[in-house]
Amino acid sequence: MSVLVPVRNGARFLRASLESAVKEVGPRDEIVVSDDASTDGSRELLKEFHGQVTVGHNPVRLGIAQNHNLLLRRARGSYLTFLHQDDELTSGAVDLRVRVLEARPTLGMVAGDSLFVDEWGVPLGPPQTPSLPTVEEVLGTPPDDDERLRLRALTGFVRSNLFQVGSVMLRRNLAEQVGEFWEDLTLAFDYDYWLRSLLVSPVAHIPTPIIKFRRHDGQASHRFYEDRASAQSEMSLAMAHAREEAHRLGVRLPFTVAAEWQAVHLMRRAAARLPPSFFRGLPSPVARAWSSVFGM
Questions:
Q1: Is 216's pLDDT higher than 90?
Q2: Is the model's pLDDT at 9 over the cut of 70?
Q3: What domains can you pick out in the chain, each with its CATH number?
Q4: Least confident of 108-122, 123-137, 222-236
Q5: 3 state SS for the chain
């Protein structure tokens, strides 16, 4: 099993993130770090984990999707999970997901809840619980039912990215089938990847917090919420890219899924043309409704 940690100027929270991973891995597992030309002291901090993590330093900055891809190439485990530099694994986060994947060989990936915390680690509310087929439901049905469960999860993803990256664990052979992250994207590169994954594999949800997802001003995903028009544009591009992949793989979507996919895609393209002032001026109830429908 491989825990993959992309780093870029993450010294502020990196120690806590790596300590949480070290506690969860076994002797046959690996923690692989790719430092994307950090300039803030991350390189020096990583020396504290000598012998516990495998570290690579990029001589020049690659970018977020490129750095994730570099980690995919370096990983040696049969199961893969990412851990971002400002997040932390919860107790049992690795073992829980591995056991589910081992119990259902036809299952390509599994995801848990994300507990949002502030910069001091204080919870900001209840865990984010995606509406996906649960482990009990998946394990309680025969493998012949995988296709129905896959389409149900895919339908939910058409509207919204239901995962935080670190909450997901996937099989290596699924990653090899799906390929790498699309490097043209920066805000929705993970959304594209999960859509493509769900074209070929079902997912099971563990209804318990797997990661502590830290909210703070310096996090890379902050731009997703600050620049909503760009985020909608990238999500629209991700949907188009995933549909191209579906055609390449010969995956036929049921009419209801295809119709919803196209409708949401067109709405996102329209939203990408709206000025930032539009989103800032939305009344709170409308903004919440928009977020629930369009993954914002």
A1: no
A2: yes
A3: 2-226 (3.90.550.10), 228-294 (no CATH)
A4: 222-236
A5: CEEEEEECCCHHHHHHHHHHHHHHCCCCCEEEEEECCCCCCHHHHHHHHECCEEEEECCCCCCHHHHHHHHHHHCCCCEEEECCCCCEECCCHHHHHHHHHHHCCCCCEEEEEEEEECCCCCECCCCECCCCCEHHHHHCCCHHHHHHHHHHHHHHHHHCCCCCHHHEEEEHHHHHHHCCCCCCCCCCHHHHHHHHHHCCCCEEEEEEEEEEEECCCCCCCHHHHHCHHHHHHHHHHHHHHHHHHHHHHCCCCCHHHHHHHHHHHHHHHHHCCCCHHHHHCCCHHHHHHHHHHHCC
